[in-house]
Amino acid sequence: MKAVVTILVLAVGTMYPGHIQAQVRTNTPTLKGHTIDETFQQFVAESGSASRARMSECSALSASNRRTIKYCDEFGALSDQATNGQPVTGHFVCGAAIDDNDACQDFEGLVTFENNKLVVIMLRIFGQEWGSVLSDLTAKFGKPTETGLEHIQHSDGGLLNLHTGKWKAPVYVVDASEMTSPAYDNTFVEVIMFDRNYLLSRQPKAGSSLD
Questions:
Q1: Which of 54, 66, 193, 206 could bond to 73 as cystine, CB 3.0-4.6 Å?
Q2: How many CB atoms lie within 10 A of CB 116?
Q3: Residues with Cβ within 8 Å of residue 95, at least 6 apart in sequence
Q4: Cα–Cα distance measured from residue 163 to residue 147, given in angstroms and rounded to the nearest whole number
Q5: Residue among 33, 198, 21, 191 nearest 119 (CA)
Q6: CA distances from residue 104 to 6, 77, 98, 133, 134 in whole angstroms, order as listed
Q7: Neighbour tally for 181: CB within 10 Å
Q8: How many whole angstroms separate alpha carbon 78 and alpha carbon 135?
Q9: Alpha-carbon distance 7 to 12, whole Å?
Q10: Which helix (H) or strand (E) holds 23?
Q11: How many CB atoms sit inside 10 A of residue 1's CB?
């Protein structure tokens, strides 16, 4: 295992020479092998082999060539920041190998970095019932802090009941929502893990009654 980790770190060092940060991991649970607070370099190193190969290809392309490839441009911009020693800030799409042009192919979703820290992991889970996903989330994060139902009007006049769940911890918040396509012909589950401080910083502040 130690040899494998060493190889991964060396591979990332080739992509981003001189900008490897010490890998400090917390006890925060992971989603698809990633967790909040990990650096951009750590995210790349811990991605699957197909994703790492695609990320390397995107990074090697010129900026003009990246713009002709869907989503490669987004990853490439963050890669340039890392290579130049800048605090990586931005997002890119993960496509679960559905689209060969996605730099990240390990899952369907999106990741966001701020100041070289992973602050949002969003993934969409297809083909699983809410109960199954809820069971997996509970095993990983414990009993949900909140659960609920959202009632959506179906095209045939009936109501569609979509489940929600929330897990709150000192350093992260997880939101899970059962969602439906515009045609209401199928549902999927969207799971979003936020860095709690990042989430709080994005919430609107209540105005003063004296202003």
A1: 66
A2: 20
A3: 71, 101, 102, 104, 105, 108
A4: 7
A5: 198
A6: 22, 14, 11, 22, 25
A7: 9
A8: 35
A9: 9
A10: none
A11: 5
Phi and psi based region of residue 92 (left: phi greater than 0; alpha: psi -120 to 50; beta: remaining): beta
pLDDT value for 64: 79
Q: Which residues contact 145 (CB under 8 A, 6 or more apart)?
A: 166, 167, 168
Would you give the DSSP letter of residue 211?
A: -
> Among candidates 187, 185, 113, 198, which has minimal Cα distance to 176?
187
Q: How confident is the model at residue 18 (pLDDT cuts 50, 70, 90)?
A: very low
What are 150-169's pLDDT values in tens digits? 988 766 677 788 999 999 99
Confidence of residue 82 (pLDDT cuts 50, 70, 90): very high
- DSSP state letter for 117: E
What are the structure tokens assigned to 177, written together? 């929502």
* Euclidean distance between CA atoms 82 and 116, whole angstroms: 8
Rounded distance, CA 43 to CA 52, Å?
A: 10
Name the DSSP letter for residue 21: P
- 211: number of Cβ within 10 Å: 4
Dihedral of alpha carbons 131, 132, 137, 140, sign? positive
Longest CA–CA span in the chain (Å) reads 62
Are 142 and 118 spatial neighbours (Cβ–Cβ below 8 Å)?
Answer: no
What one-letter code names the amino acid at 100? D
